[in-house]
Amino acid sequence: MIDYPVPLGRPKIGSSGLTGHWRLMRPEIDYSKCTKCRLCVIYCPENTIDLLEGFDVRIDYDYCKGCGVCAQICPQKAIQMVPEVK
Ligand code: SF4
Ligand code: SF4
Q1: Smallest CA separation from ligand 1 atom 2, residue
Q2: Is residue 11 part of a domain?
Q3: What pLDDT is attached to residue 55?
Q4: Does ligand 1 lie within 6 Å of residue 79's CB atom?
Q5: How many folded domains does the chain comprise?
Q6: Is residue 48 one of the residues assigned to a domain?
Q7: CA of 78 to the centre of ligand 1 (A)
Q8: What keywords appear on the UniProt entry (predicted)?
Q9: Residue 54 contacts residue 15 (beta carbons within 8 Å)
């Protein structure tokens, strides 16, 4: 994972556990459409999309709340929100 030169907060385990556990919708990336533009990384309000070597992106489902901002911002429509299966 690439470290940013600016301090960005990361979510932590709260009193009710991992925030990803109460997610109702789940973002899924279609990597065949992803152009590695990194907009989803920048706009995720929880900073739960990791930037990997080669500018691949990966969602940390332990903390993603399923807000859908990444799916809205993705210019390639590469992220779809699907119902979380519990
Ligand atoms: S916003 Fe979309 S195209 Fe850009 S890196 Fe994220 S998933 Fe890929
Ligand atoms: S659904 Fe929301 S919290 Fe989860 S990765 Fe996308 S923008 Fe971040």
Answers
A1: 74
A2: no
A3: 86
A4: yes
A5: 1
A6: yes
A7: 6
A8: 4Fe-4S, Electron transport, Iron, Iron-sulfur, Metal-binding, Pyruvate, Repeat, Transport
A9: no
CATH of the domain at 26: 3.30.70.20
Residue-level pLDDT at 6: 63
Residue 50: what pLDDT?
92
Q: How far is the CA of 28 from the centre of ligand 1 (A)?
A: 11
Cβ of residue 44 lying under 6 Å from some atom of ligand 1: no
Asked whether residue 56 is domain-assigned, the answer is: yes
Full domain range(s) for residue 30: 20-83
Spell out, as residue ranges, where the chain has pLDDT lower than 70: 2-7, 86
For residue 32, what pLDDT is reported? Answer: 98
